[in-house]
Write a structure and sequence with these properties.
alpha/beta; Alkaline Phosphatase, subunit A; 473 residues; 9-stranded mixed sheet; single chain; 12 helices; globular
Length: 473
Amino acid sequence: MLHLSRRDMLTRTANGFGAAALAALLADDGRASEDRQDKPGGSADPFAPKKPQFPAKAKSVIVLFMDGGVSQVDSFDPKPMLDKFNGKPFPAKTEPTQFNNVGNTLGSPWKFKKYGQSGLPVSDLFPHIGECADDLAVIRSMVANFPEHTNANYFYHSGSGLQGRPSMGAWVTYGLGSECRDLPGFVVLGSGMIPPGGIDCFGSGFLPAAYQGSMFRHGAHPVSDLTPAGGQSAKTTAAKRDLLRNLDKMAKERFGENDAFEAAVANYELSFRMQTAVPDLADLSKETEATKAMYGLDNKQTEVFGRQCLIARRMVEKGVRFVELLCQNLGHDRWDQHSNLKKGHEDNARAVDKPIAALLKDLKQRNLLDSTLVVWGGEFGRTPMAQGSDGRDHNPHGFSMWLAGGGTKGGTVHGETDEFGYHAIKDKVEVHDLHATMLHLLGFDHTKLTYRFGGRDMRLTDVHGEVVKGVLA
């Protein structure tokens, strides 16, 4: 048995007090578990860029999450039969709905127009996005497993309707790391409203906490408590950082490599670098007036989402791997128009249409669209018959999303719903298929991007998912 004097004990454990505090931090953020593999690319730094499994088309992802459920028959899936039966009893069998307040058939209040060389039909809700029709791969046959917002949001983001599973952004950064040293690899740009399900929609689940989404608020100060405390000179701050770096180095030399320790230190180093990077990112003064006008920053109706879209472009330009944008609160409960469909959808569309088109055009003119996958859509669609007299209920049986850039085939339509836009009847696409396709474009076989947890190899697509080849270029 080894006997230590008090002096020896203090000498050997001097670093232990800090290690104990660090161990608590590691336990809190989930990085201390021995069975967690937080470096698929072989690096102890969770943010280090990692090679995909095969050559990728896309390097970054921007998700435009239309929280609440956009109506497919009023946006990207025109159905003349709705106009024919408008105001009449719905002529087909109906499924149970969220509120079971089924009214008559409801024709679209908007007209559709064909855009671009592809002749892709887009409703009058989205005239600016329509100008980008030849860059859109529209999926009209999406289906979801849940008709209620919270579970559907979890399912859309994580492939599971239950709380606590890793989100798609976490999986992507786990697999690829990030090419940006000074910002998180997975960022959620908020507009003042969090979707049902809360921030767990962007969590890391059983993956190391380094991969969870970092929430940025709208405005010039997107991150809280980022400014260093006053009364301390830059020289003093630099000296403290040098001391910490030397102590970390000494601990590493004495006790050897420790993956969890190195990953945590990388996180804390990132926090320091963000003190400079985030204010620079949020400062749009260097953008031209023409660019700001293109995104709608000169208009109160489009300024909020326009700013988010412009910052998303700046992020992928800097190498951020995964960015998700959230809709703002316009007093209509997101896109969830159970009543007053026309007013609600028009206000929501007006807020995002011009900024999204600007994002696509800006990425394209900067040669970034080919390497950036843009995903647009909500957690489900809406019914072809009215709820009450002027709304639409939830419809997970067939709805529309679109992809752009990142190796997708622009100007195409994949899948089909029935003549009323109610059920997907051709080339049905499940959320697992969407996730598999996203990972494929990023250079991953979705069945092989796994993480050992609970005695099995877990993955974003669980035991499901097929790549949607019809949207690939």
